[in-house]
C-alpha cells in the first residue's frame, strides 16, 4: 500500500494512509507522526495524527515544501507497515450511564433528523446491528476495549475504534442531518467510531449515554488535568463500564468535590499479537483494570 | 487601565495572532480572522503586531475608557465615534478618561479590529490571549464580551495621528475572488464537479462565523465509488480525517464550507481545496451575500503570493515603525 500526499493550501500537507479505516492504517499514522515529532524540523508547527491519515502544518517561509514532502515520504518508507511497533500507552475505564435522561431528552428534540423517528438512537443501533435487545447492544459496546485513533473535531474529543474483528464491529450511520445540540460528555457513535463529546454543541453522532468523567477541563482544576486541559491522547485504550443512576450521581459528586479520577493503568500495546488473537489479547489487556 | 463594555455589539471577542501546537488535540489556532487588519491596528498604536485586540463582527460595541488611551480601528468599514464624534479608521486617535467609543453601521467588510495602546491584557492561555468559544478557552472568560465586562489593558506608549498609507488599506467588495489550492479529496469530484466548483459564483450564506463560512450556489458531481469501511454512505463522506485550516469541505456535495481559524479540527466530510492562508483575510471580511469565486493556484503561485504578502507587511512596518 502507498500513501496519498496532498497539499492543504500553502501551510499544510495532508497524507492519507488508507481510504478505509483499520487499526493497521491508524498504527502507521501514529508511528510516522511519532517519528516526525522526534525529528521535529524547524518550521514544523503542528503534527496531527488521525484515523487513517495525518496532517502537518508548517511554515513554508522556513521549511521548503518539497523538502518536507520528501522527508514525509522517507518516513513512510522507514516505518513500513509498523507491525513491529510497540506503543506505550494506558488503559482507561470510562463509566457510562447508558440511556441517560439528558441525551434521551436531547435526541427526542431531533427525531426529524434521524433514520428512526419512532425509536431512540440506541434502539436503532441495536436493531440494525442485529442485537436482540438494547441490553445486548450495551453489553457489546462496553464489552470490548476501544482504541483512541484520533483526538479532535473539538478540543479533546476522542474518536474510538472497536478492538474486535471487523465482522463483530458495531457500525451505525451518523444522523441524517446534524443536531444543533449534544450534551457535554455524551457517549456517541458514528460510522465505526465511538466518541465522547468534550463540550456541548452541534454533532451528528448517535447518542447512547453520558459519562460523569470530565475529559476536557480548560481551568485545569481537576486532578486528572494537572498536566494539561485535554485528557485523551491518540493511542489511549478505553473500556466503557455501564453504571446506574446512583453511581452516576455519586461520581458526579466526586467531580464536584474535585476528587474524581479516571481509573487508568500503563500498558504497552503491540499490533501484531493483537491481530493474531484479539480476544486473548484484549482479556490480558483489561486485566490491568481488574 | 481598563475598558468597560457598555454594549457588547453582535459578537465581540478578544483575539490576537492565535495559538499553535495544539491542533492535534482539537484546539484550533483561533486568533483574528483578518490577520492583516490585526497587524495594522496594533502597529498604529505602537503595540507588537500580534497583541490582543477586539474583533467586532457586523455591529460594533460601545466601550468606556477608564483612562486616556490611544486607539485605532482597522478592518471592516465601521466608522468609530468618540462621544458621538466621528474618528477616522486606519488611523490612531486619542481618547480621554470617561470617553465612550461607539461605532456607526457597517458599510463594507464584516469584522473591525479595535487596538488600544498596551494591548488587551487578559490572561495568556496556551500561548495566546485569543478566545476559542467552543472550548471556553482564552480571551475574556472564554466567551464573547457581555455588557458590564471590564477588560484590563496593558501600559503602552502609542501616539495619536499615525495612519496607514491609503494604498496599504484594505477595501471591501461584495464580489470577491478567493485563491485556493485544489487537493485533499478533490479526486472525489468528476471533471464536471471540479469545473463547477471553480466556475460557480458562490454566495455566502448567513452561516459565516469563526468556525466556518458556508456558501450556496451549486451541487458538485462526485465519482461513483463503493464506500470505504468507516466512511459512511454519502458520496461526500470520508473516514474522519484532520481538516487543514482554510480547507473547503462539501457535506452532501453541496454548500462548500471554508473552515476558518476556530475550525473543527477533523471530521468525516471530504475537503476539495484549501484557501491560501493570506486569502483567509478575504473570507473573514465577507458578509452574507458576498459573491465569491474560488480561483485555483498551484504551490509555486501560492509561494509567490506569500512573498507579495510579506512585502506588503514590510511596507506596513516601514510606514508605521
UniProtKB/TrEMBL annotation, chain A:
Keywords: ATP-binding, Hydrolase, Nucleotide-binding. Signal peptide: none annotated. InterPro entries: CT_C_D, Cyclophilin-like_dom_sf, PxpB. Residues 3-223 form the Carboxyltransferase domain. Gene3D superfamilies: 3.30.1360.40, Cyclophilin-like. One of its GO terms (molecular function) is ATP binding. It comes from the Bacteria. PANTHER family: 5-OXOPROLINASE SUBUNIT B. This is Carboxyltransferase domain-containing protein.
Automatic annotation (TrEMBL), chain B:
SUPFAM superfamilies: Cyclophilin-like. Pfam families: CT_A_B (PF02626). This is Biotin-dependent carboxyltransferase. Residues 24-312 form the Carboxyltransferase domain. Keywords: ATP-binding, Hydrolase, Nucleotide-binding. The keyword Phosphoprotein does not apply. PANTHER family: 5-OXOPROLINASE SUBUNIT C (PTHR43309:SF3). The keyword ATP-binding applies. GO terms for molecular function: ATP binding; hydrolase activity.
